[in-house]
Design goal:
- By secondary structure, the chain is α/β, with parallel strands linked by helices.
- 46% of the residues lie in helices and 16% in strands.
- Helix 3 packs across helix 16, helix 6 packs across helix 8 and helix 6 packs across helix 12.
- The two termini are 34 Å apart.
- Bound molecules: nicotinamide-adenine-dinucleotide (NAD).
């Protein structure tokens, strides 16, 4: 996509990479190796639908194989093209390195508007696409593991997993060929919410650092912060829900395809989400002001802006008018490289996509490990937890006996301790830990180097250093 003669999405990511690389001391050959996309496979395939053969175009791009398998979602959208898929694949490379998931970067896409098709038609299309990729090892538990992205979810991942299993009946690890599957098809608890949950954990971590809050010209905590979200899909909905329900933030605006909703007192995220599910958009929702040109809301005063839909939405046409002092990139590439400079010059703090939406791939990693281990995730830890918790319970019961009525142990509290950690608790705590550690690694570079003045550069530097070390270890 090219907006106002700005570089394409892929070029924009490359410009950001180049800026980071210019602050590092990489041999030029290695720098080039890390920058370029290794391969992009284009497939055109036919599916008989509604009495005629329809041809679809899909892509799977592999940006870097410094670690394998490579990993990255599959997007269904009309905007999908080679440039977009390659940009997204390169972001996956740096994202995986930043949060230390042992994968290279990949991405796939199908040029399709999924809303135009019935469920059984989408299944035929998805299975055929999966077949085309799997027969070339572009879906494979040890080489290339897709996941959901815009326009796809658990349903599509279950079809892909089943298609791969049919083609590889003796592969005992077949389930690990794709992540983001529903729990009854080998998925893991907490994967659907993971990317939005990661956005929440990222913001919580940011708000643990007073110095960083001050740099964004904000104060206090997440509570009562006014937030505008673009895209109430998988990522945007979960982020908005958790931030409003659990952290007391106010979602004052929601931008969707057909317009936007605004309420300075805070929208009921659940009600808006249900309205969109029933009506295909936000128009007609009664309890808020409707804004015809949704993108206008990007420019409205708020504390935190969360673009969670498309790339390139904050560009040279609107960057100057953005008022949010803090932007967290839940979407991939929502800010063009040109807009990034305008915003930095204005003093806006940007929590970059590489980090902000890494919750998805982090929990996908847990799912992949669970599939390969063939053991219910958390079972081993659970035994240890139970042993430890039994000691706590014994201690509590002793206290209960001594203190009698003066101090009574709550049955719910006791039950929680006895139960030990379940899969969802383990996934969430593993994700929280990952988001904290990754933030701190970026933050250290951000604050310790005079030549690094933004989190995006810090994120790229941390990631590129790790990828370079990995290539060096391979002898390249
Ligand atoms: N799903 C994941 O796990 C995941 C992980 C990492 C990053 N991401 C990124 O997050 C972004 C959103 O992905 P998702 O999975 O939530 O997709 P989704 O398809 O579930 O949701 C996208 C939402 O954006 C809305 N939208 C589309 N075009 C819009 C426009 N022009 N203006 C306003 N709203 C618009 C859609 O109506 C939908 O509600 C993408 O950039 C994706 O690459 C997703």
């Amino acid at each position: 996509m090219s907006l106002t003669n700005e570089p394409s999405f892929r070029e924009s990511v490359e410009l950001m990479f180049n800026r980071a690389a210019s602050l590092m001391n990489l041999p030029s050959g290695l720098e080039e190796k890390i920058r370029v996309c290794n391969a992009t496979y284009t497939v055109r395939f036919g599916v008989r639908l509604r009495g005629e053969i329809k041809t679809f175009t899909g892509y799977r791009s592999v940006h870097s194989e410094h670690m394998e398998p490579v990993k990255g979602g599959i997007r269904y959208a009309i905007s999908v093209d080679q440039d977009e898929v390659e940009a997204l694949a390169s972001l996956m490379t740096f994202k995986c390195a930043l949060v230390e998931t042992p994968f290279g970067g990949s991405k796939g896409g199908l040029c399709i508007d999924p809303r135009e098709y019935e469920e059984h038609e989408l299944e035929l299309i998805t299975r055929r696409f999966a077949y085309e990729l799997a027969k070339r090892d572009l879906i494979n538990p040890s080489q290339n593991v897709p996941a959901p992205d815009m326009g796809t979810g658990e349903r599509e991942m279950a079809w892909i997993a089943d298609q791969y299993a049919r083609m590889n009946t003796t592969d005992i690890n077949a389930r690990a060929c794709v992540t983001g599957k529903p729990p009854h098809a080998g998925g893991i608890a907490g994967r659907v919410e993971a990317t939005g949950r990661g956005v929440q954990y990222a913001l919580r971590e940011f708000f643990r650092h007073p110095e960083d809050i001050k740099l964004a010209n904000l104060s206090g905590k997440l509570k009562d912060k006014r937030i505008i979200v673009q895209g109430l899909g998988n990522v945007g909905y979960h982020a908005a829900k958790f931030l409003s329900h659990e952290d007391g933030s106010r979602i004052i605006g929601v931008i969707e395809r057909d317009g936007a909703l605004y309420d300075a007192n805070g929208l009921d995220v659940e009600a808006v989400h249900q309205w969109i599910a029933g009506h295909g958009g936000v128009k007609g929702f009664a309890d808020a002001q409707f804004v015809e040109n949704g993108a206008d809301l990007l420019e409205v005063e708020c504390d935190i802006l969360i673009p969670a839909a498309l790339e390139g939405v904050i560009n040279l046409t609107n960057a100057e008018r953005i008022k949010a002092p803090l932007i967290i990139e839940a979407a991939n590439g929502p800010i063009t490289s040109g807009a990034d400079k305008v915003l930095r010059d204005k003093g806006v703090v940007i929590i970059p996509d590489l980090y902000a939406n890494a919750g998805g791939v982090t929990v996908s990693y847990f799912e992949w490990v669970k599939n390969l281990s063939h053991i219910r995730f958390g079972r081993m830890q659970r035994r240890q937890e139970e042993a430890r918790h039994q000691l706590v319970v014994d201690e509590l019961e002793r206290l209960d006996r001594y203190l009698g009525d003066a101090w009574s142990m709550s049955p719910a509290f006791k039950e929680k301790y006895l139960r030990g950690a379940d899969e969802l608790e383990l996934v969430r705590s593993g994700l929280d830990d990952t988001m904290r550690v990754a933030y701190q690694s970026m933050r250290e570079v951000w604050h310790s180097r005079d030549d690094v003045d933004d989190l995006r550069m810090a994120a790229f530097i941390v990631a590129i250093e790790r990828i370079a070390a990995s290539y060096r270890a391979k002898g390249l």
